[in-house]
Amino acid sequence: MNTINNSQHDHQEPRIGVYICRCGGNISDVVDVDRVAEVSRHIPGVVVAKVHTFCCSDPGQNTISQDIQAEKLDRVVVASCSPFLHELTFRGAVQRGGLNPYLYEHANIREQGSWAHKHDPAGATAKSIRMIAAAVGKLQYSTPLDQIRLPNHRKALVIGGGVAGMKVAADLARRGIPVLLVESSGRLGGRLNQWNRVFPTDTPAGQLVTKLLAQLDANPLVEILLNCKVTAVTGFVGSFQVTIEGPLGPSGAMTSTQTTIGAIVMATGFKPYVPDDGEFLYKKDPGVVTMPEFIDLMRGQQTDTGELVYKGRTIRSVAFLHCVGSRQIDGVHTPRADGKINTYCSRVCCTTTLQQALAAKERFPSLQVYDLHQDIRTYGRGHEDYYVRAGKAGVVFFRYHGDEIPRVALADGKRPAEPSLHITFKDYLTWGEELTLDVDMLVLAVGLMAGDIPDLINMFKLPVGEDRFIQEIHPKLRPVEISVNGVLLAGTVQGPMNIEETLNAAGAAAVKASAMFLKDVVELNPYVAQVETDLCQGSGACVTQCEYDGAIVMVETQVNGKTVRQAKVNPGLCVGCGACVAVCPTRAINLNGWRLDQYDAMVDGLTADIPAVAAATS
Amino acid sequence: MTTQLHKTLHEEMHFFGGKDVDLCMNCGTCTVICPLARDEGGTFPRRIIRLIQTGQKRLLVKSLDPWMCYYCGDCSENCPRQANPAETMMASRRYLTSQYDWTGLARLFYKSAMMEILTIVLVGLFVTGLFVWFHGPMVLSFPVQLNTFAPVKWVELGDWIMAGTLSFFLLTNAARMVWNTLGGKQMFGISSLIYFKAVPVFFDHMFTQRRSRQCGSTRSRSFWLKHLLLVSGYLSMLVLVLILLRWFQTDRIYPIYNPQRLWGYYATLALLYPTGAFLISRWRRKEPIHFFSEASDWIFLVMLFLTALTGIMVSLARVNGFPMTTYVIYVIHLSIAVPMLVVEVPFSKWSHLLYRPLAMYLVSVKKAAAAVSLKTQTEAATA
Ligand SMILES: Cc1cc2nc3c(=O)[nH]c(=O)nc-3n(C[C@H](O)[C@H](O)[C@H](O)COP(=O)(O)OP(=O)(O)OC[C@H]3O[C@@H](n4cnc5c(N)ncnc54)[C@H](O)[C@@H]3O)c2cc1C
Ligand code: SF4
Ligand code: SF4
Ligand code: SF4
Ligand code: SF4
Description:
The complex is a heterodimer. By secondary structure, chain A is an alpha/beta fold. Helices cover 28% and strands 25% of the residues of chain A. Chain A folds into 4 domains: 1-145, Rossmann fold; 156-269 and 451-521, FAD/NAD(P)-binding domain, CATH 3.50.50.60; 279-439, 3-Layer(bba) Sandwich (FAD/NAD(P)-binding domain), CATH 3.50.50; 525-592, Alpha-Beta Plaits (2-Layer Sandwich). Chain B is mainly alpha-helical. Chain B contains 21 helices and 1 strand. Bound molecules: flavin-adenine dinucleotide and iron/sulfur cluster (4 copies). One iron/sulfur cluster binds next to helix 3, helix 7 and helix 8 of chain B.
């Protein structure tokens, strides 16, 4: 066993303060904190070891700051709860005492000590001592670090000009942030351009788009690029270099332009599920249409005739089928080309269906309207009203089970005036009896699918969920952020949402993005890779290993008048994963704050022969 | 087997008072709440509503469930959609009454109150006419000689003719009910012992309406009593008029404590009090069962009330020696009672007096038959 011994290091003897927290009994009920303090005082380098009931309280923090001054401490360890809770708190206390905040280490003797070893106080005490010894060891090699500060270009890029993108752009511009809104089609508004009146207010969809347009037009900080696409991106949060292609400029010819952007919001939306040919006779019989097609045909209908007419045929009966392309079941539904099925609920199709069924019944009272659902998921404010009203208006509801998909066939003995579609299903509202319906039209309430944006996914390394939508870091705690720093999500690019939810998400993304522009620099934590130029032989193993484009690259530099190739880290892109450290043949790369010699010292600390520890454990 | 849906049924149901069927979202609360569905292992009222929504006429006509409900209104009280399942049950009883009736008159009367009233008026005028042309001498001295004005043997003959005709209609309708609900020809497959053994069930329910007492929490306690009183008054009158008319319609004035008078007064009160109370309750919408009133409900109660009222007036006039008044009110009395019976007994609300206990009887026949067939099946399987 190693004995802790600093004599081999040639730097000045450190003066370390160790603060042990009782956590109001959470720790001290199990761990003998006084003993821990007693033993800690004997660890080489430690000059102060104190116990406090709540280190995180103001008096606790003040003790640390004051001791730094009074005892001339140059490094601090706090042994307390998880660093997730209070690492930043104590870094602050250390900084207020006049030290660099990175000359601080945290020993988690609560979650990893008293709570984990409730029934073994002696063991918990011994472990706490070892963890402090490891922290002290690591600290001896710590160097002052500074947050990485990168220039922050005060300009946002919004990709996708649906309501989500429009809302983000309008909100950002209102806060004085210049915005570039890039839309791949020739028109803003996204899917709303296809809809008629939208639930839950029955507002004309166009009216919403017009209102958002007016907000955008009114603000000179918004630049809108239609028919354009983002084709390349480099750089990192605060300064992305973005290439945009499209008919830019007055000539209308395809050109490409580059611009520097501080933050990016993805708002590329969704695409409606398109049934396979023949799925529920789609494309095989003209009477089978998808919900977007039905909305379109309703918009074109004359009401005064009192009859719903489609492709020259009078429609007397129509059935709506829920969950087409959603809530699919393994082994029941045919997977898509990528081998996946859509197991998720698309959330908007129930209310859309009820709204459309009601509208159809109200506009054409003699029309027979049927609704085949698995469940009615009218979860939002005002959504249930459509259900009640549709029932009242005479829409007849049926309930099928997801693994018994209704079957659609062409009705036989077909005369022009007769319903052409024959639907057979088990109705669980009629105690599972098999029922048949003959109808002129079947509307497939298709769900939402992730949009086709493979190029953007590749470019940005966007995290894709099991459902193909782009995935946030945490659905509740960080709902619009993704693992790519500086890129945010807005709207249905993330998953099925209705307009209300889309706009809420967009508002949140806009707030997050504006917060990024509060400072004119981007501050990142300093735990990134660093190449020791003396040691780097230019093998390039690190570059091959690194998963993050541009985080580490080979550059040519002059060493002693000779041109050599060496690795160079881009601190904006490095995430500090350490993969390069592991592969470097000459140990030329270290992670700041987690250097290899620090690891060695921690191991030494953990395994050190501390006589008092042995006594405590025996 | 697949069922084709008839979309006309639930529109048709509107005529019978089932106006809120569309509102039902099939949550099943009503069935869970119903105190009567519970012990029948029943699925009503939701099942009945569902049959109507999906237009399954065949199954509805086959169902006895509507007769199992005594209209406490608990289901309607608890329905989250205000779909009024109790009233739908009522409507389906009206519908079934019209379906059992082969003449089509029941249907006509339920669909058009005007036709019902017109029929009542015509029959009433016919009765009045008979008396105007064929009455006996009007003796205006004391004591009143009603039997001279309207000889009891002739009245009795009229009674019997009417009773015979009405019974014919009512019984043929009831036979259709049996046929429909026991599955047509299948009814002959059931052993006659089963039919015989279940007979007490019929009388039990006819005379006690026990199930009505199990009915829910919102129903007033006195309802069952009032209803029972009404039935007893009704049956008393039937016995007095059909079987004991010669004993009941006399010119001699018996002392007040004589059974002839006591029974008559009892029957009158037993008719007047509940009908009066029910009329008020319907008017003020006091009890759930009386929240919704179709024309047929009003006509039934008003006619019954007037029959009893004129009946007692005849008696009072006779006992107190007002001959002319007696004769005139007697004619009015019969001109109300006869059309009431003609219209109500086989073709309208009255018929439930027979259909309800019959339904209970049929349920128990069905149960017994099912038990037997299950037994033979298991025996065949084990053999
Ligand atoms: C049939 C149906 C009916 C609906 N009815 C209602 C309703 O009544 N009420 C309601 O609240 N919600 C309704 N919704 C949901 C509603 O459509 C969505 O909430 C809304 O459209 C989401 O807006 P978005 O901006 O996120 O996406 P989108 O509307 O899809 O907009 C995305 C935009 O991004 C653009 N884009 C895509 N890829 C790129 C790219 N690579 N580069 C640049 N631009 C790109 C697209 O061209 C589009 O303009 C309905 C949905 C469906 C399927
Ligand atoms: S919202 Fe309704 S129709 Fe759409 S997937 Fe979910 S349950 Fe099915
Ligand atoms: S630490 Fe990770 S991200 Fe950074 S350069 Fe090395 S391998 Fe790349
Ligand atoms: S009638 Fe009312 S309580 Fe009964 S199933 Fe329908 S909605 Fe539910
Ligand atoms: S009214 Fe009463 S008895 Fe009739 S179905 Fe409703 S709860 Fe049952």
